[in-house]
Amino acid sequence: MKKKIAVFTTGWCCEILSQFLMGMEESLRSDGADIFLFLGYSMYSDSEANRKGDLNIFKLPDLHDFDAAVIFGSGLYFKGQPESIIERSKEAGIPVIVQGSRFDDTYYIGSDNYSATTDMCRHLRTTHGVRDIIFLAGSADSLDSELRLKAVKDFLHENNEDDLLKEVFYTKWENAAVTKYIKEFCKTGRSLPDVFICANDGLAMETCMSLEKYGISVPGQVLVTGFDHIEGSQIFYPSIASVDQCFVKMGSACGDICRRLFAGEKCDTSTIIEGEFIPGESCDCLEAGNSDAARRRMGRTEFAKRSDATYFNIKLNSMDSAVLSSVSFEEFTSNLHDLLLRDHFIEGDSFHVLLEPNFRLSLNDTDISLSREGYSPHVDVLYSMENGKEFEDSQFPSRSLVPGYDPEDSNHLYVFLALHEADDAFGYIVFRDCMNRIINHDLQSYQNRLGLVIDKFRHALNLDLINKRLLDIMKKDPLTNVSNRRAYEDKETFLQSKINSGEDYKFAIAMFDVNNLKLVNDVNGHEAGDAYLIRACRLICNIFKHSPVYRVGGDEFIAVLTDNDYIKRNELLKELSASLSPYTKEIPLPDDFVSIACGIAEYDKNFDSSVQDITNRADDKMYQNKKMIKGAV
């Protein structure tokens, strides 16, 4: 059976992530191992709720089912997230390999950022005579960014030139922060440094573009350097002088560590890959690097990329139409399922959309909450195809992750993304073998668009439901003044949501049937029958005083017992029995006559999958009680 490796990170560092994954795949090619990538797209500027909802995908896997966990630290820089994954991995008894950051009791893989950054500083100082430096950092809690900054500071300090570092600005890895910084820098009329040293290539390219808006040329008036040496920075003009961290080699080393650990071998707890400074046009080294070759490759593939992007956008628009034209959950699932079944060129022959069971229920009741911590034990299958074969069951255990998964199949890369709005979990989607989609940010576009259109559909149906219920706001039975059948149906939906979530919610269903109502109506008239029903209902309410009571039929009532009434349900049943009149068919009946048959059934988490299961048992007990009452005459 193949090994299973869980990888956790965010997708904004798509190029270096894809290089790392390709190195892992190549290293594991001769061994049976699947990579399960749990991918988020959160940013520092996101709201706390949106970040929580996006990174909730990290809580989907049960790590007891995996053989190793990998944290790609260059993309996962949110405080607390790596620690949580490491803690879960230790509890599951599996090894943890962390790229880019060091943690106790884990295997570390990194590149020699320090030496390569020192080489870059030496090049800038000796070749280009650089003096004044501004460092555009990532985040203060990023080991990579802080190590690069330390290399710059140490180099200057060793040469007694500490004062050349004029400023350190933390961007939190967001290009928008660079745009704002350069705008304020130019508006204040500050003197340009000799170089902007940026913590990654994305920040470096944004620096070049922002400077150009204010008429400042790179490298003519100021130099710019980056980090990571991604392909995008090579084809950019000017090509970015950068440090190649050799992420393919890091990924290969990660795969090697996994293979050796699976074989029971011992491994070094720290693996360092040598980085390399690559001069580029942005530091005025026009002949360095392979930017021309990269640009020619881009020119060759541009047409195919443009065609794919066009078709990708058409698919997203088709999803919008399929979902937003739906007026019910059934139509929503049917429309989206049929669209994906008919046309899954973008998604491929292995793609899955799985929804939280409470998503459907929440469409009809805004009080039903969606999961905000992890996922339900069972999820609804909206669409599922693996190796071109459709999964036929309507529900699927979320712990198994992928419907139709074949542990004997060839090696694959599975990518999991959360479907959510803020911290409300709608479900999750699964792509397979989609490296090009990771590089192009297509997965983020797909995830964001599908989550957004599902949320619009949900709110539209909720609004429609509210409008309909405004036409029928009365949920009270006009005779007895307790809740009516419609109110009970809403309560039943709520109880079903508790069952679906696997929550250990304690409740019982009590069913009541008022005896002799037809006899009273026939002999004394319907007014007397109404008074009898009111008298019987009052007795039920007085005894089960902490529970909602519903009139669900002519002589039928239901109570939902929770809290104290649930705990004392047997005593209350005895109290009800002691309060009833002796059963009789003789006329006239006493003025205070009340005869009620009752049955109570409790929710059993290990047995019941629906409210109806409990109701059926309560109904059986009620009819047994009715037979006993009548048989006692």
Describe this structure in words.
- The structure is a single chain.
- The chain is of the alpha/beta class.
- The protein folds into three domains: 3-107 and 310-462, no CATH class; 111-246 and 269-293, Response regulator (Rossmann fold, 3-Layer(aba) Sandwich), CATH 3.40.50.2300; 485-631, Alpha-Beta Plaits.
- Helix content is 44%, strand content 19%.
- The chain contains 20 helices and 22 strands.
- Strands 1, 2, 3, 4, 5, 11, 13, 14, 15, 16, 17 and 18 form a twelve-stranded mixed beta sheet that branches.
- A hairpin with a 2-residue loop joins strand 17 (413-421) and strand 18 (424-432).
- Helix 6 (175-187) runs parallel beside helix 7 (201-213), helix 10 (291-324) packs parallel to helix 14 and helix 16 packs antiparallel against helix 17 (526-543).
- The longest helix is centred in the middle third of the chain and has 34 residues, at 291-324.
- It is elongated and about 115 Å long.
- The mean pLDDT is 92.
